Amino acid sequence: MTRDAGDRRLSRRRVLQTSGALAGVSLLGLSATPAAGAAYETTTGKSEPQYEKLPAEDHYVETEFVVDGETETPTLYGSIICPDTDESVPVIATYSPYNDIRSPQGEAGSTAADGVADYFVPRGYARAMFDVVGTRNSDGCYDYGGIRERKTAAQVVEYLGTREWSSGKVGMIGGSYDGTTQLAAAVEDPDHLTTIIPQVAIDRWYDYAFGGGFATS
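^ thats the sequence. predicted structure below, dont judge the formating
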């Protein structure tokens, strides 16, 4: 490897690291409003928990889009955990095909009840976890990296951004496929999508499926 090539590779690594850090700051910058009169300071640079978590609620989103000239109207299922406050709050969402693994249909428990919820809901954010179209409790045809994932991801974002308890700001987080669905939503440019933090996600489906000229899946 030449010195120039090494420098370019190092520079690219620094750019990626910096981009990831800025993305994290951006998500935390979704303004969570503390309860009225709740002024507080911290010495760690992190906000302190201010709210109790409300019980998880089931949500169903009616979607509509056109694929190959045909209208499709799948209903998507999600679970949402909100903080116990009358103030409007931003939403941290994940649109995932992995929820069968997280919580199989026959088992009790909310897929939204994860580490993200444990940290952020007490700090004034809602946590939303939705099943990708055609998986688990969501209707429709599973469309591996396809237009259906794009359209439905964007419509889930718009749903979350227009609830009466929502501030209208929706961020998305997650890795692998849960990062890929963020890119799918962003392509559709929904009004309420403020931030995405895709981690080790697929950003070029053709390269992923045909790396080196061979199908990998």
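Residues 1-29 have pLDDT under 50 and may be disordered.
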